[in-house]
Amino acid sequence: MRSIETFSQQSFFNLIIDCTQTKNIALGKTLHAQIIKTGKLTCTYIANSLVNFYSKCQHLSQANTAFQDIQEKDIVSWNSIINGFSQLGGSHNSFFVLKLFKLLRKQSGVFPNAHTFAGFFTATSILGDGFAGKQGHSIVIKISGCDDVFVGSSLVNMYCKSGLVQDARKVFDEMSDRNSITWATMISGYATLRLADYALELFRMMMWEMEEGVNEFVLTSVISAFTLKEFIDIGKQLHGLVIKFGLLSFVTVGNSIVTMYSKCGDLDYAVKSFELADDKNSITWTAMITGFAQSGDCFKALALFSKMHFAGMKASEFTLVGVLNACTDSKGVEKGMQVHGYLVKLGFESQIFIMTALVDMYAKCGFVGDARKGFYYLQKPDIVLWTSMIGGYVQNGDNESAIDLYCKMQEEGILPNELTMASVLKACSSLAAFEQGKQIHAHTIKFGFGLEAPIGSALSTMYAKCGSLEDEALYVFCVYCDVAHTGVFTLRFCYFEIHST
């Protein structure tokens, strides 16, 4: 039997590629150790394969270590680490991508390419950071232009996710080559902003211009864009097109229809579409389970999950999130605990969005201690998980812990979102903690939040309950009421009603 020490560079490379495809982390780590031992880590393409391996296996800490160990980093090295972090998502990973991109720009002789920009724009879209995205856009124009469909589509997606739909359309119109993803992204951008007329106009243009015609991939993407309640009629028209073109037999199309009806709140049509689907996969079941959970019909969601299990269909992490969302009251907590055990058995406990759903479930059921254990299980929670835990404390009346956790979050340099600020302001309101509430108000200004709901409402309530008629309190009352199109006297009346007794 041939000794592993005698393997050539190409042999090690091929084995790492195999480990990447099979997600064999144990064997990959063994090979990594042998590569170091045999001195082959100096070979850049082998070192790059290790970064890619750890990234694809979602072991980003080891991926970053392997990246830092590369003596001569080329653009493949940078792309492997940038795309590894951007594809896993989350605000923490996305901020790190922006940091990596900045470091790459300082390297001499190494220039970003289409794959680099795609990873960068994915990160900025997750953060909704249109400013950083525009800076990246200017670099694209300077280096290579936006002719690459991969880069152009990423730019359209970034601008749409940042709410800059006019910038997205400008990039879209200037692209010489568009694919179905580009069209669907632009249509989705309009739909997300409730600009249905623009979305439909673009869909008709797409049907006219696309040489390959309407296929299952195109319709799946477009249907996925119209998942707001007010778009139910458009969704039904698209359903009709699916039938007209004979595409209903494609499982991806059937899944998008079930998902669309579920998210639009038309569960009757969702159930009919689900039952008519001949070839159901995990996504089909998950869409229907999530639909029941979101509509508040928890018993049907849990019953369908049991039926799925008995049908021999393996649950995905998305299925488990849907089921956990159905267990958010005291009657469902026992089932939620069973799901918790099941997801640990499947090895999903390291998935941050699953742990967020788990923390939320325990908190809403009043099991704040179990929620806390889930929160601290992960070493690097993202802002969604921090917010879920802070909100969980507030829901259960532990307002001191909510404020303490917010302070800890600040110490760790995690940027809050609107829901974080609203939750901690509610904690200050319940405690009548005026000075802390003023500090949080200062933070909302520092982080650039306006006085729209939910922050304006939370600030108004906080100042009213704390008995303040100082200038900043009156300013919040007046501005928030103007934003909310309600009368300032209503909030002033609330203030006097609270403090007249």
TrEMBL record:
Gene3D superfamilies attached to this UniProt entry: Tetratricopeptide repeat domain
| Repeat positions for PPR | 148-182, 281-315, 382-416
Tell me if Ribonucleoprotein is a UniProt keyword of this record.
Answer: no
Q: Which GO terms describe its molecular function?
A: RNA binding
**GO biological process terms, semicolon-separated:** RNA modification
Q: Which keywords has UniProt assigned to this entry?
A: Repeat
Question: Please, which domain of life does this record's source organism belong to?
Answer: Eukaryota
- Which Pfam families does this chain map to? PPR, PPR_1, PPR_2
What NCBIfam families is this protein classified in?
PPR (TIGR00756)
| Name of the protein this chain belongs to | Pentatricopeptide repeat-containing protein
Instruction: Give the originating organism.
Output: Daucus carota subsp. sativus (Carrot)
- Taxon lineage: Eukaryota, Viridiplantae, Streptophyta, Embryophyta, Tracheophyta
